[in-house]
Specification:
By secondary structure, the protein is α/β, with parallel strands linked by helices. It has 12 helices and 15 strands.
Length: about 450
Amino acid sequence: MSEYVLNTPEDQAAMLARIGVSSIEDLFTPIPLELRLGRPLHIPPALSEVELSHHMHTLANRNQSASSAVCFLGGGAYDHFIPSVVDAIAGRSEFYTAYTPYQAEASQGTLQAIFEYQTLMCQLTGLDVANASLYEGGSAVAEAVLMAMGITGRSGDILLAESVHPEYRQVVETYTANLGCRVVTLPTPEGFLNPDDVAAAVNDQTICVVAQSPNFFGHLEELHAIGAVTQKAGAIFIHSFDPISVGLMKRSADYGVDIAVAEGQGLGTPLGFGGPYLGILACRKEYVRKIPGRLVGQTVDRHGKRCWTLTLQPREQHIARAKATSNICTNQGLFALRAAVYLTALGPQGLRETAELCLRKAHYAARKLGQLDGVALRFPGRPFVKEFAVQVPGNVESLLGQLRGLGYHAGLSLGRWYPAFRDSFSVAVTEQRTKSEIDGLAQAMQSRLA
């Protein structure tokens, strides 16, 4: 790593002579004088290690994390409990330092861990095959859309429900900006996608329909009806789901979904600013040749012992560029491992209990907040699992700021993405929230709204 080796004055002189200049300043000759700084940078004097550590801690303490206040934040990233066994296993050096397994010589331990993850994702979705993970929920949706384009061979419309996470929709628009197709957002003014609107929009050139359930507002979509009209037109039905909610709800395959995607952060990954987290993608077996990322398969070696291998690796360094379905250099393997350990630790019963706690506590919170003066559910009567939206009087951003000052991350302002809902914010309630914390949020809101 020569870039870390100090160049002596003699080395520098030799390099300058080789390129035909007498000094480093000569390298800047093409830059007009008026564009050069012409003075030293105003950089503070160097700090000792002790001083630097104190300075960095002071800066870090200005941040407010999910653990420093009662967290009701959602929108794809949730404050779920993480069993200690997840950190214990994921922190082992053989996993923590393992590089991305797109090489054929990846270790058997890493390959087995990925195979177990794929198996769990197939069980979670009910679909036939799951890949070795993607960057996060948004890119998983976008990769599923690209899959749909390859499967159908169409170049028409990509129909996205407005209730799909707005940032996921932005990622899709970025991925497809130069591909000759059109991204169409189907309005959801009542907080859910009307199947009749889908039926009116699909045609024989529609590439796919993307619906999220529970959606960005926390509500359930009518997936059976949406899927039926989508597939009748020969389009691909993509479902963005919440892995924790599967503990109570039907799996994606039970709705006839072609491709299922999800943000896997809730499966054992702590909240972190911006991620990346874990992109889950599973599909029907007939679409396996269009799947991005990698697939690990189980086989036997020449001695008849069980072993694992990279069965499919559709990256452009392995196959013809035109046939590649992925250029991903890393598969977020550590987060996939965390998800596998988390689901194994909980088991089916633990996942169901976690989802039930979220459901009960979220509905309790909705009742408490809905009883406050001037506060109402934004979409009353719509079923939800762990997230819902409330409508409040006054400035939402100001209210949320005041609640942060009282020790509550109360929710996400919907006006950031939906101008029509600028008087509302979403509230997510996980199994971690206690009755006293929910009651405390209601009291804090009442005091600020009075």
